[in-house]
């Protein structure tokens, strides 16, 4: 097994070393085959935007990982919830991030100081 550390992720023949500790065990477990498919596709990609043809493979891997949250914690869940929470208050107050909504951006461009509250009240 010491050859894993010596060989690295890519073997001398160009193959992926699925036993490399750098993969953190992703190649095994319930989603190992999906991980291998996605990683192999990306590794072998010849597209100008490397891996652009592998989106379905990565989607399959992500869907598998979502079925096993105890094994594959989702950092995106935390990011998505933190992004969703400020969005609602921002729409109500108009102070956090007005350019994110089309109506607020249009109102800001028309009359940045007085028009947005008046338009918001009229639209409600």
From TrEMBL:
GO terms for biological process: mitochondrial respiratory chain complex assembly; protein import into mitochondrial intermembrane space. The keyword Ribosomal protein does not apply. Residues 66-124 are annotated as: Disordered. The keyword Ubl conjugation does not apply. GO terms for cellular component: mitochondrial intermembrane space. It is found in: Mitochondrion intermembrane space. One of its GO terms (molecular function) is protein-disulfide reductase activity. InterPro entries: CHCHD4. PROSITE patterns: CHCH. Residues 99-124 have a biased composition (Low complexity). Keywords: Disulfide bond, Mitochondrion, Oxidoreductase, Protein transport, Redox-active center, Translocation, Transport. This is Mitochondrial intermembrane space import and assembly protein 40. It comes from Liparis tanakae.
């Amino acid at each position: 097994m010491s050859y894993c550390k010596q060989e690295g992720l890519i073997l001398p023949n160009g193959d992926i070393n699925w036993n490399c500790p750098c993969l953190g065990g992703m190649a095994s477990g319930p989603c190992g085959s999906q991980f291998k498919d996605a990683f192999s596709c990306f590794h072998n990609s010849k597209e100008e935007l490397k891996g652009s043809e592998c989106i379905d493979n990565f989607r399959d891997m992500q869907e598998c990982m979502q079925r096993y949250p105890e094994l594959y914690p989702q950092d995106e869940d935390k990011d998505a919830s933190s992004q969703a929470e400020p969005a609602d208050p921002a729409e109500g107050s108009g102070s956090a991030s007005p350019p994110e909504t089309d109506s607020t951006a249009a109102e800001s461009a028309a009359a940045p100081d007085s028009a947005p509250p008046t338009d918001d009240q009229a639209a409600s």
